[in-house]
Design a protein that fits this description.
Layout: E1 2-8, H1 12-31, E2 35-40, E3 46-51, H2 55-64, H3 66-69, E4 73-79, H4 91-98
Antiparallel strand pairs: 1-3, 1-4, 2-3
């Protein structure tokens, strides 16, 4: 499983101009099953994505993010091996994505 931390490198005007393309990219990765959750950080300095799957697939997806392609954000990928899950999380879906 992975946490992807996005740090904005541009002002919010530039970020907002690319937001629709970024949202389309997010939707594509949700449909593929790679992304499990995402959202912006508070304060609005970037975002966070929770992902499961193969690292190579995630790295390819990150490279295709319009924010990355336009050098609007830096992506840091952190891999971890979950050992506990809260009841609100769909554990079976996460486990299936990890396999």
């Amino acid at each position: 499983m992975f946490v992807v931390i996005l740090d904005y490198l541009a002002d919010l005007t530039e970020i907002d101009a690319a937001l629709a393309d970024h949202a389309t990219w997010l939707d594509e990765n949700y449909r593929s099953g790679l992304f499990l959750a995402s959202g912006r950080r508070e304060p609005r300095t970037g975002g966070v994505i929770l992902a499961a799957g193969l690292r190579e697939d995630l790295e390819n997806a990150v490279a295709a993010d319009p924010f990355a392609q336009r050098r609007l954000a830096r992506h840091t990928v952190i891999e971890f091996h979950p050992s506990k899950f809260g009841g609100a999380l769909n554990v079976e879906q996460v486990k299936a994505a990890l396999n």
